[in-house]
Every structure is written in C-alpha cells, then in structure tokens.
Write a structure and sequence with these properties.
- The chain is mainly alpha-helical.
- Helices cover 77% and strands 0% of the residues.
- It has one domain.
- It contains twelve helices and no strands.
- Helix 1 crosses helix 6, helix 6 packs antiparallel against helix 8 and helix 8 runs antiparallel to helix 11.
C-alpha cells in the first residue's frame, strides 16, 4: 500500500507521455548525435592534432568527451522534467490540486514524480550510450556500466530542482536557474575539459558542483580509469543531494499546496 499511490502518479505521467513523447524524442536522439559529431569529431580532431591528448591522459578527445556528455545529459533531462512540468502541475494545469483531492498525499506525489524522472533518465541514458557506442566513443560493456552513475547524477539534480520550483511563483525563477546554474555547470564542471585547466580560484567552485562528481564517476566507470576522489565519496555526494532534495520537495510542496 505504501507504494500504491506513488505508482498511480507514475502511471498518470506515463499515460500523458504516451501522447507527448514526440516532443522530446527528437532531442533525445538528435542531441547526442549533434554533440558527439560537432564536439567529438569536429573539435576533437583539432584537440588531438594539437597535442591536447597530453592533458586528457592520452585519450582521443571523443572518448574523453562522451562519458562527460552522458552525465551532463542526465543533469539536463532531470532538471527539465523537474522544473516547468512541476510548475505546470502547481499553477498552470493544476494537476497537483486534482491529485491531492484524492487520497494521495504530498509525499506520494513527490515520490511518484521523481520515479518518473528516474525512468526518463534511464531511457535517455540508454539512448545516449547506444549512439555513443555507434560513434566508437564508448565501449558497449563499459557504457552499460556507466548508466548507473549517469542516472544517479540526474537524480542529484531532479529533487533539488523540484524543491526549488515548488517555491517559485513565476517561471522567471526557473529561467534564472538554467541561465546562472545549469548552463555554467554544463560548461565548467569537467564535461568538455579537465577542471584542472580552469583558473586556480575557480577549481574549488567546480569541485562543489554535483555535475563534477557525476562526470568524474561516469567517466571513471566508462573508461575504467581512476576518479579524483574515492568512488564512494562521489556516490555519497550525489546521494546526499538527491536525499536532501527529496525531503525539501515534500516540505515545500506541502507548504505550497496544502492549506
């Protein structure tokens, strides 16, 4: 019975997605192709020819890039599914009001939504690994192992972003989060180049971001290389973000929706 209500909400999200999947299918398949072709093959050729492998542990740039992009794609997917859809449920469509008018509780709604985010992350990550393997950027076996840290990376973002969205009255707050939070992390958390290449004062900031931990963990598993910290430390950091975000999501959404 404890799982029945969250599963009901998960089912409702899946039923809606049956009618809206085309809107995300193009980006799910096209984005990895464009990024790997432009950055991996295009820019990667210049990096490799210019001696850039010396800073990438002698790896071809395409192989260095793919696991980082996998983790970053998980971050973007979870953030997208935990921001505007949550605001729609609260303000625009008011589906949360309808759900809470039933025996469903706030925590059931949060757990159901985050379960759906996890399912979406799994699908998007599998698609990315398949495409990256076809590009020759990642080994099939190591890529399949990297799915777990990639999904964990996404779940380190989904709950905190859901909690943040639950406090917002206007979408401008979400746009600001993307502009000054998600995009800078995407660019400067080790996805495209080692964090050690950043100015010294900026490196500690990058180490604090959950994406850096996700990139390190995903890249370490995908390439079978050592990570900057202990793998358990990276996992604990990401789990802490997911756990605290989940608790705050329940608290803030309850404060917002339950009078």
């Amino acid at each position: 019975m404890a799982l029945a209500r969250p599963l009901r909400y998960f089912e409702s999200r899946a039923m809606v997605y049956r009618h809206t999947w085309r809107g995300s299918a193009i980006t799910t398949f096209l984005n990895p192709i464009l990024y790997l072709a432009a950055m991996g093959w295009g820019l990667g050729t210049l990096v490799d020819d210019g001696g850039g492998r010396a800073t990438l542990d002698a790896l071809p740039y395409l192989e260095f890039l793919a696991p980082g992009l996998l983790a970053a794609t998980a971050m973007q997917t979870a953030t997208g599914d935990s921001s505007f859809p949550v605001m729609a449920g609260i303000k625009w469509v008011r589906s949360y009001e309808a759900a809470l008018a039933t025996p469903m509780r706030t925590k059931d709604l949060v757990y159901g939504h985050l379960s759906w985010v996890a399912a979406r992350l799994a699908f998007v990550s599998v698609v990315f690994v398949v495409i990256a393997a076809l590009f020759g950027a990642i080994d099939w076996f190591r890529g399949s192992l990297a799915l777990a840290p990639a999904i964990l990376t996404g779940m380190a973002f989904g709950p905190p972003v859901m909690a943040f969205t639950s406090t917002q009255e206007h979408p401008q707050g979400i746009s600001t989060l993307f502009r000054f939070g998600i995009i800078p992390m995407f660019l400067f958390s080790g996805t495209f180049f080692p964090v050690e290449q950043l100015p010294g004062w900026l490196q500690p900031v990058a180490y604090l971001t959950p994406l850096w931990h996700g990139v390190e963990l995903t890249r370490g598993v995908a390439l079978d290389t050592a990570t900057a910290w202990s793998p358990l430390a990276h996992v604990a950091y990401l789990v802490a973000f997911a756990a605290v975000g989940t608790v705050l999501s329940v608290r803030f959404l309850k404060k917002r929706m339950v009078i």
